[in-house]
Write a structure and sequence with these properties.
Elements (H helix, E strand, L loop, with lengths): L1 E3 L2 H10 L10 E3 L5 H11 L7 E4 L12 H9 L7 E7 L5 H13 L9 H5 L6 E2 L5 E2 L19 E7 L2
Parallel strand pairs: 1-2, 3-4
Antiparallel strand pairs: 4-7, 5-7, 6-7
Helix pairs in contact: 2-3
């Protein structure tokens, strides 16, 4: 199941997502700030008695603190069975705060909330969960054996992490 609030993504999903006898796919137009709407649709497609994976990749830096992103994450995880997983990624201003604040401001002026967060702020989204090794880390350093190696001087300002519900 896929959820997004972008109408262009809806059109792409309608064209590309097709169910087969081996498995089904579904799409809902919803905002991550609407966890109730997402969960209602997810209950129709998923068995919450079984572990599932919840992916919020590149989503939460588009949710400002005043929109209570921690509450949304907690609500999206609440009905999941133990052993479910949460995967997150999030832009950070830890290495160049002035530039990233300007990037966030461009988004906000365009009508899209945006907020970069520090490693500590990002890690707080996993409170109450069991982080999978290596915990929260820069994207290029989170299992570098799975992708291209980055030089020491090259930093992608993106934290990632995966955690298991207990």
């Amino acid at each position: 199941m896929y959820a997004d609030n972008d109408p262009i993504v809806l059109r792409q999903a309608e064209a590309l997502l097709h169910s087969t006898p081996e498995g089904s796919t579904t799409y809902i137009q919803a905002d991550v700030r609407e966890p109730g709407k997402i969960l209602a649709a997810a209950r129709e497609a998923l068995d919450f008695a079984q572990p599932v994976a919840r992916s919020l990749v590149a989503r939460l830096h588009l949710v400002a603190d005043e929109d209570r992103p921690h509450r949304s994450v907690a609500e999206l995880l609440a009905p999941l069975a133990p052993g479910s997983h949460l995967a997150l990624s999030h832009a950070t201003g830890d290495f160049d705060p002035e530039t990233w604040e300007r990037v966030a401001e461009v988004h906000r002026r365009g009508g899209t909330p945006a907020q970069v967060r520090s490693r500590t702020e990002f890690t707080a989204f996993f409170t109450g969960l069991e982080l999978v090794d290596p915990g929260t880390e820069l994207a290029a350093r989170w299992h570098p054996e799975l992708g291209e190696q980055q030089s020491e001087n090259e930093q992608i300002p993106l934290y990632v992490g995966v955690a298991r519900t207990v």
